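Dear Dr. H.,

I hope your travels went smoothly. While you were away I took the liberty of generating a structure for the chain from your last submission, since the lab meeting agenda had it listed for discussion. I wanted you to have the full record in hand beforehand rather than looking at slides cold. The sequence, exactly as received, is reproduced here:
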Amino acid sequence: MDEGAKPAKSHGRLSISASLRPRDLMAEPRTVRGAWRARVITLFPDAFPGVLGQSLTGRALDLGLWALEAIDLRPFGIGKHRNVDDTPAGGGAGMVLRADVLDAALTHAAQGTPDRGRWPVIYLSPRGRPFDQAMARRLAACDGVTLLCGRFEGVDERVLQHYRIEEVSLGDFVMTGGEIAAQAVLDATVRLLPNVLGNAESAVEESFSDGLLEHPQFTRPAEWQGLPIPEVLQSGNHAAIAKWRKAQAEAITRERRPDLWQAWMAKRG
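The corresponding predicted structure, in token form, is as follows:
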């Protein structure tokens, strides 16, 4: 990358070390030591942290429980205008992100990262494997992750094959780019990191934690618009409450997600 290239944005707790050279701390990338890290390669680094800087994920970011680095793809571009894309080989509409540009960005992003088992590289793509809670748990157990946000018609296939990049999808639909998908993946993952959630049991009792959708939730007032909270939830009988919640979770999953219900039943014989 050229010396004049725009530095990557990094978000998290500062780690300051002694130096004989005066420096502008605000201009240097900020680093987090010993925390889970995310690196996002994107044409829109200003999109980050976005909503990730709010609420629990934002608080965890400020506390240094995780770190976020948005790597601007444009400085790796070719020529005077920093071109990052070109027309599809074989013809067709749209543009494709160049292999040489992505190679330079991925090489930069790989600096200081461990092996793939501890630091996956993921391309957000509608043709990828569906993202789910199990994948979020796997990512949270790693040291970090690099997310590649596509644009236009996608990326050169040779890059995906050469770097053995995982393709991950949020669902059967197409978006203008991978930035929103990347934030969704990070949100689902970061909340599983130690000390991010205020109540650790929240991650245990929510949807998909045991293969079922979550049971209905209620709170005050005890009656609203003529609709009361189910009596069992006000009984103080924890065994009865647990039984009711389990039955509700099973019924909702069976009705709304037959695929999950069949998988849950098969898992239990």
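Two observations you may find useful: Residues 13-29 have pLDDT under 50 and may be disordered. Strands lie at 9-11, 36-42, 66-72, 85-86, 96-97, 121-130, 144-149, 166-169, 223-224, 227-228.

With kind regards,
E. W.
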